[in-house]
Amino acid sequence: MKEDLYKTIVVKVGTTTLVNENGKLNIVGIEKLVRVISAIKNSGKNVVLVTSGAVGAGAGRLGIKGKGDIRIKQALAAVGQGVLMQFYEKLFLEYGVNVAQVLLTREDLETDIRRQNALNTLTTLFEFEVVPIVNENDTVAVEEIVYGDNDTLAAVVAKLIGADLLVILSDVDGLYTMPPHEPGAEKIPYVKEITPEIEALAEGSYSNLGTGGMQSKIKAAKIATEAGIAMAIISGESPTDIYNILDGSTACGTFFEPKKAGECAKEA
Ligand SMILES: Nc1ncnc2c1ncn2[C@@H]1O[C@H](COP(=O)(O)OP(=O)(O)O)[C@@H](O)[C@H]1O
Ligand SMILES: N[C@@H](CCC(=O)OP(=O)(O)O)C(=O)O
């Protein structure tokens, strides 16, 4: 891994990578991810893991099917968040990496004093060489003040901590010209600029588990690249691709070029 290309990295993992369709945890997938993040951490970089999956894991634990209304989702998240953290704790500890749970709401990141407190906590965790594991605080985030998708949350956190790379792991290995289950869909390997044409390609989620689909990932890419942060969408099945990205490759999944300082975003 190149030492100086990317120093602070945010890795976001979606429910579709963490939880099987039957609601059980994807043990092999989570183990692979934890191993990669631990290796990156041990190479001396700062890493934040933004994890989804609380609602999905909670539904699996209680044997509840379907997404349900907001009240049900909040209760499921309260159950599933503990399930996820217990598993992350166990796996990261095997590699000698300490982790911390950080639950945030949009209000926390949009209120000056609370945003500063969140930043202080995250930078202090870096000083202690801890990997912060972030999720939205679903139990208290109600409709009007919710991000609702962790892609946006991950981009906002990346901007807050001055990250230089955001990697989004999904059940799809990048942005396609149309939802990948449609015949003729082709992967777009490199996005220099997020134009309205690029935005128009992205649709919502087609799975029972995911939230936001490709639309929220492109929204995240806009926030990140406009803040000068590179972003990649890669398959959750191959987290080792992150090593290649850290070595400077832009050939994995879809790579979004960051804007350079002084470059202005074009009006839509
Ligand atoms: N243009 C597109 N390219 C790729 N995926 C797309 C596109 N439009 C919609 N999608 C959908 O976005 C999904 C990924 O988002 P989502 O279901 O929210 O999963 P995650 O749990 O990774 O956040 C894909 O499985 C795909 O069906
Ligand atoms: N905060 C929610 C995740 C919301 C979300 O964005 O999900 P996903 O589309 O799977 O990344 C949870 O933990 O279930």
TrEMBL record:
Name recorded for this polypeptide: Glutamate 5-kinase
Family from the record: Belongs to the glutamate 5-kinase family.
Tagged with keyword Kinase: yes
EC number: 2.7.2.11
Pfam families in the record: AA_kinase
Pathway recorded for this protein: Amino-acid biosynthesis; L-proline biosynthesis; L-glutamate 5-semialdehyde from L-glutamate: step 1/2
BP terms from Gene Ontology: L-proline biosynthetic process
Annotated localization: Cytoplasm
Summary of the function given for this chain in its UniProt record: Catalyzes the transfer of a phosphate group to glutamate to form L-glutamate 5-phosphate.
Annotated source species: Tepidanaerobacter syntrophicus
Binding residues annotated for ATP, in chain numbering: 12, 170-171, 211-217
Name of encoding gene: proB
Keywords of this entry: Amino-acid biosynthesis, ATP-binding, Cytoplasm, Kinase, Nucleotide-binding, Proline biosynthesis, Transferase
